[in-house]
Write a structure and sequence with these properties.
The complex is a heterodimer of chains A (328) and B (411). Chain A is built from 12 helices and 2 strands; from the N terminus they run αααββααααααααα. Chain A has 328 residues and is mainly alpha-helical. Chain A is flat. Chain B is built from 17 helices and 14 strands. Classes of the chains: A mainly alpha (328), B alpha/beta (411).
């Protein structure tokens, strides 16, 4: 009883004050606990159902399900490697493009922008998160894809296509429905997530850090580079991974620009591809054989596992910064 | 694992509740303005007139099926409510006939006061739904396979064809003005990836205008599972042994090449966006979007323009070869006028239904759909089912039974 926190002590006093109120408290506590319990139960239910439905395909194909690229409903040969590849590549492109921009925006808002400008700029960037993904998809389909096909992809092909190592990434005919276009759409969609979280992380950096550097005669840039960014590094990585987690599961916008072609894993980013989420959305309604349906549910299970791992990782990194002012 | 379908359908139904709620209020735009009572009154004259050609062939069949009473009265008209029938029916399945079905069911409620809810969740979903008895009737653009028939929990399933359609090769070639002519061989080659350029000698042979088009062909196919894909791959499998062996036919297949677009509209969009692209869509989509589409050479060696007439011709030409259970395919049909990539869509009904009011309502609906309903087909760009086939459907409808007794009341 000695180590009661302030909060607990207050609760204990309430107990003493009114026995009647205590019964109400208990009832309320039970209700709220039950409500809160629903969430993990639901999650558990989803996982169990996915596992049950995925079982026939997992048992039949085993590890080959992850390594084979053939997806042939007629011959009942299913391998999800091309979908996994498409998901990973588009998400990584999105991450590579969105992280520098997102962190840049966050730095501007947190360090450079005048106070009156911070709220409007944050608001506009976060508004991007409110745009439904089908609208991104339509925009990508009608505006971005033709631009990519007509201007950006030919430019990349002509400039980088002949560079030895990375040239293979930019080879082949540009049709505007490929991994690169999907990655670009995704990068726009995850930008608000990365910006918002990074901004919070940068705000959590104690002012003493900055004051210390400035007192040593550092410029603003040096302050950011030597004091702010190192302090916030873990959190910014976490912000990026949160963005990545969103990119992994994004379905509609990607489906509209990725080309939906499942059989090929090629080095070129101009290859039409397929992601796990778009494969599920496209094929589930007509999966009329049990093993076909099971294969699709297995893809969903893989997607869930990957997304869960990414989210957990990100949370851990963000927490390690946000709640530990004692670091460095 | 057999329990996934009710659950899946449950989720889908919940999602589509909104759509069905709007259904009756928003029938697809159709020029028909005839109100229900006059059409019902006019039935005795219109029904016989609708069956001029195949009527002699059709008449003997009901008699052999052991229905002497109904054989004597050929003109059965569905009109007015029937006291012992269910007032609502739930169906789900194919998206291809969904606009037609919406029109039908909004008319049908005026005729009989029976509300029919139809959820266009795809042919696969329709088959699953009827297998697991989560719907009163299913709908599919592909007949059920033997395996699927065996998996139906309610016993024997009848296939009732309701409408026919054409699948057309549609392309985007800004420089070519003339209508392209395709053969089964060239279409299979393009979709297998063996014909990669528009000026390939095989294509130029039938289309001299293509000789200057030195461009890569961008192939577009459906990304979602679809009855349209079934019809298309059914045709390619029929005309190309290589396709049959490498890809096969199904509602979704392992495409050797190309981009995927979601739905007829998605494929149409991809083709319109990509110069030098070719895809396949239902005829109506190509017409509505002013897209170029080609003629296809049929079994008799004639190049035929896809149209409602050439589709019905294909079905009529094939009627003699159609299996008794009506699980037929009319691709690559014989006859000079037959368009070779013609497909059908079916209602799926159980032969035996324990719920008698539902059985009565369903048989009346099926009869109406295969008779009075057919006159809506043309306005919505679906080809009508030839009378020779409707005659076979009639037999099935009369055989549908509830608790051992035929369910169809005959009016």
């Amino acid at each position: 009883m000695v180590s009661l926190s302030n909060h607990e002590r207050v609760l204990a006093e309430v107990d003493v004050l009114g026995r009647g109120a205590n019964r109400g408290d208990r009832a309320f506590q039970t209700v709220v606990t039950a409500i809160a319990a629903c969430v993990p139960i639901m999650l558990l239910g989803i996982v169990i159902l996915l596992l049950l439905d995925a079982l026939p395909a997992l048992l039949r194909y085993g590890g080959a399900f992850l390594t084979q690229t053939t997806w042939d409903p007629v011959a009942e040969k299913f391998g999800a490697a091309a979908y996994v590849y498409g998901t990973v590549v588009t998400s990584l492109i999105a991450l590579l493009l969105a992280t520098p921009i997102g962190v840049g925006c966050a730095l501007f808002i947190a360090e450079y922008a005048p106070i009156w400008m911070r709220a409007p700029v944050s608001f506009v960037i976060e508004l991007l998160a409110a745009i439904p993904s089908i609208i991104y998809g339509l925009w990508g389909f009608f505006i971005l894809a033709p631009i990519m096909r007509g201007a950006i992809e030919p430019f990349l092909k002509n400039s980088l296509g002949n560079v030895p190592a990375i040239g293979a990434l930019f080879s082949g005919p540009a049709v505007g429905r490929d991994l690169l276009v999907a990655g670009v759409i995704l990068s726009i969609m995850i930008l608000p997530t990365i910006t918002a979280v990074s901004r919070e992380i940068l705000r959590a950096v104690p002012d003493t850090q900055r004051e210390g550097m400035l007192a040593l005669g550092a410029t603003r840039w040096e302050t950011i580079r030597k004091a702010v960014l190192p302090y916030a590094r873990g959190g910014i990585v976490g912000a990026a991974i949160l963005g990545l987690a969103r990119a992994l599961g994004e379905t509609m916008a990607v489906t509209m620009v990725i080309g939906n072609s499942s059989t090929q894993i090629r080095a070129s980013l101009f290859t039409p591809g397929y992601t796990m989420a778009s494969a599920i959305a496209n094929q589930f309604t007509e999966a009329d054989k049990e093993i076909y349906f099971s294969a699709i549910v297995s893809v969903a299970l893989i997607l869930l596992v990957v997304a869960a791992i990414m989210n957990i990782l990100a949370r851990l990194l963000v927490w390690s910064v946000a709640r530990a002012p004692r670091a460095s | 694992m057999s329990d996934f379908s009710p659950r899946t359908l449950g989720i889908v139904s919940a999602l589509l509740l909104v759509a069905t709620a709007c259904g009756p209020g928003t029938p697809p735009a159709a020029p028909t303005t005839a109100p229900a009572p006059p059409t019902a009154a006019a039935k005795p004259t219109t029904a016989p007139a609708a069956q001029p050609t195949a009527a002699p062939a059709a008449q003997p069949t009901p008699a052999t099926a052991g229905q002497p009473t109904t054989a004597a009265a050929p003109a059965i008209t569905i009109s007015g409510p029937f006291q012992d029938e269910a007032k609502t029916l739930n169906g789900a399945g194919a998206t291809f006939p969904a606009p037609l079905y919406q029109k039908w069911f909004s008319e049908y409620v005026n005729v009989t006061q029976v509300q029919v809810n139809y959820q266009a969740i795809g042919s696969g979903g329709g088959i699953k739904g009827i297998q697991d008895q989560t719907v009163d009737f299913g709908a599919s653009d592909a007949p059920m396979t033997d395996e699927q028939v065996a998996g139906a929990k309610g016993g024997e399933v009848y296939h009732i064809p309701t409408a026919l359609g054409a699948i057309v090769p549609t392309y985007n070639l800004p420089t070519v003005k003339s209508k392209l002519k395709f053969t089964g061989d060239t279409l299979a080659g393009i979709f297998l990836g063996t014909i990669q350029k528009w000026n390939d000698p095989k294509l130029v042979a039938g289309n001299p205008d293509l000789v200057k088009v030195n461009e890569d062909i961008v192939v577009v196919h459906r990304s979602d599972g679809s009855g349209t894909t079934f019809g298309w791959t059914d045709y390619l499998s029929t005309v190309s042994p290589e396709w049959q062996q490498k890809v096969g036919k199904a509602t979704s297949v392992n495409w050797p090449t190309g981009l995927g677009g979601s739905g007829n509209a998605g494929v149409a969009g991809e083709v319109q966006q990509n110069p030098n692209a070719i895809g396949y869509v239902e005829l109506i989509y190509a017409v509505q979007n002013n897209m170029g589409y080609g003629m296809v050479r049929n079994k008799s060696g004639k190049f035929v323009d896809p149209s409602l007439e050439s589709v019905t011709a294909a079905a009529a030409a094939n009627a003699a070869n159609i299996p008794a259970d009506l699980r037929f395919s009319i691709v690559d049909a014989p006859g000079d006028a037959s368009y070779p990539i013609s497909t059908a869509t079916w209602l799926l009904l159980y032969k035996n239904m324990p719920d008698q009011p539902k059985a009565v309502a369903l048989t009346r609906l099926a009869w109406w759909a295969t008779h009075e309903g057919q006159k809506f087909n043309k306005d919505l760009a679906y080809a009508t089912v030839p009378d020779a086939l409707n005659a076979k459907s009639e037999q099935f409808i009369k055989q549908i039974a509830s608790n051992g007794k035929p369910a169809f009341p005959g009016r």
